[in-house]
Structures are given as structure tokens and as C-alpha cells.
Design goal:
388 residues; extended; 7-stranded mixed β-sheet; 4-stranded antiparallel β-sheet; 6 helices
Amino acid sequence: MAKIEVKVPSVGESVTEVILGQLMVESGAFVQEDISICELESDKASVEVPAPKSGVITFTKKQGDTLAVGEAFAVIDTQGKGKEHAPVDADTKDEAPKPVEKVVDKVEQKQETSGGIRESLDEHIKQVEQKQEVVAASVAKESSVKESSKKQIPESGETERKKMPKIRTIIAKRLVGVKNETAMLTTFNEVDMSAVMAMRSREKDSFLKKHGVKLTFMPFFMKAAAQALTEFAEVNAYIDGDEIVYNKNVHMGIAVSTEKGLVVPVIRAINKMSMVEMTHAMNEMALKGRDGKLSISDMSGGTFTITNGGVFGSMLSTPILNPPQSAILGLHNIVERPVVKNGKVEVAPIMYLALSYDHRIIDGKDSVQFLMRIKELVEDPSLYILGE
């Protein structure tokens, strides 16, 4: 065929619609195969769409439109040679506004037929005067309401109104959907970071020299969560209709902050990785996210997510689920707090942990024990956790 449709590709599980973002080529331009033609924005990230074939492209949707997955938004004429100019449709020209006819009351006259009497002029005048009084009272009331409203609204110089971006409306809809469609609960615990901080301080220089990457706190939690997820299968599963789908591997999403917002790239089969491999994979995904080079596949197929609000100073939060996943782990800042050790009060670096989970599939006992398992592993990181 000479013409092919460009359709919205799948952008990850549970994503059913996207926004047509920036158009990178003009409608009517000749494009080469695999060149980026536009951006599609979902609540997870923005992805660039390449041209499937070379030819003249015509966008059938405009920037800002909401599109369903699989919906066509452009057509490529593979036999086109150059830019096409559509003729101006004469029917689209602006027309002069038509005058508005003034509506006036009509006096209904009743003609006398068989013994009937004609409505008197005085009675009609009285009715007209009553109508005028009702209209005047209504206008006065409306004016009073407007004046009252003006007093409650700040002056124009004190506020600024901007249309809510469509991508934010999608995010809002999905977040509300999670709250309404899941039985989401959050359980909390605290972890003593003394052992992790001591190990990191002791190993960070040799780790950097040997592996070429910095040793941060995140891989300790990734390793601990991967181990715990293999022990608590429900936490790594999800509900599909009336079935529970159990994942054989742990595909972990790590929330990364970028200029365009929060994205969640996925590290696959993390349960089979050493901490060194996890660190390399995490750094690679974080770099791609900040450079805007994450692909659709990079953000698809996650079974569990870790989000770290502690980097922004968060003390405690209740992270919201990333559907269709059944659980998400929230990390927070590390603060020195008084704790009791061996009957004595000591100061220790403490982090609060939060696990939000879908109570339809994960029992309260399992959620608490899962979080306790992460706590135990982080508080006692033996050398094998580094994958040496």
C-alpha cells in the first residue's frame, strides 16, 4: 500500500491512553524511516515515536489530543516526494455574525366568537407591569450575587490561572483509580542504618576503584527487597480479573526524578543479580531517564517498585501503588534518633520504611513480615550481599 497508518504503540501495562505531545516534524514533510516524528506522553514517561517507513507524513490528530493505545494519529504516504499543501476550504472562512433579533412580548388578542368577551386593555397593562417588576427584581438579585462573588475572589493581580496540562489530568485520573479500585493499606517500620553506613564507608573507595561506580544506599534495599520478594510470592504478584498472576522473577521499578517528572524504569530479573550488577543497571537507567532516552520497554513489565522520597528530605509518606503491581516500598531520609540497644539509650541513624500494598491479595501478616524481612537484611548486610 502507498499509505500506512502510524498508531499509538503499547506504552506499558495498565496504560490505556496517552497525550500527543511535541510534534518533531511538520505535517506534510518528508520523513526518513526510524526518525523521531513526535512524543507520546503517559503518566509514566514521555516516549519518542519513530517513523515506521519513509514518506510524506500527515498528522490526523493535533498536539494535545488524548489518544487510545492502538489509535492512528498520522498517515505516511510512502510514495510521496515532498511537502503537500492542502487547499483552503472556502466553507471554513469566517462568516459575519448574524444580527440577534430582539424578542418582545406579544399581546395575545382573543377575538369574541360565540358570546366570549375580549380581554380588557387595562388588565393587559397590569400584567405587563407585573412582569417588569419580576424582571427588575431578578436583575437586582443577580447583580447582588455577582458583587458578593467578586469580594470573595482575589484581584486579578494576586492570582494566575493556567490550564491544567492534559498529562496531569491523566495522572490524576490514574491515581484516583488506584485509590478507588484497590484496597490499599500502608504499614511502617524503621531500620537502623548503622551497619549499612559502616559497610559503605569501609567499602566505597575500593568499590569505586574496582567497579567504576559509586556505592550508594539504594542497592542495599534493592538486594534486600529482591530477596524478600522471592520469599513472599504474593507481594510480587498481581490480580488479573478473578485470577492471581505469580511472577517467577523480580522486575523492579526504581523511581527516578527527571525534568519532565517522575519516571519508573524497570530492572529485569533483579533477583538473579549481584549488588554490582544492580548498581550498574540502576545507574544506566537513571542516566537514560535524565537524558530522556528511556524506551517504552524500559518502563514496562515491573512487578515491584521502590521510591525514595528521602533524597528530597521526606521523613514519612504513604506511597501510592503503581498498577497492576500489588506493593511499593517507600524509603525516607536518615535521621539520628534515640533508640534502645541492649537496655541502653543510644543515638543511631534511623530510616522509616513504608510499604503500601493491595490488601485484596496481600494479608496484613504477610505485609508486616515482608517489611520485617527487609529490615533484617538491611540491618545485617554481610559481605555476600556485595556479590564478591
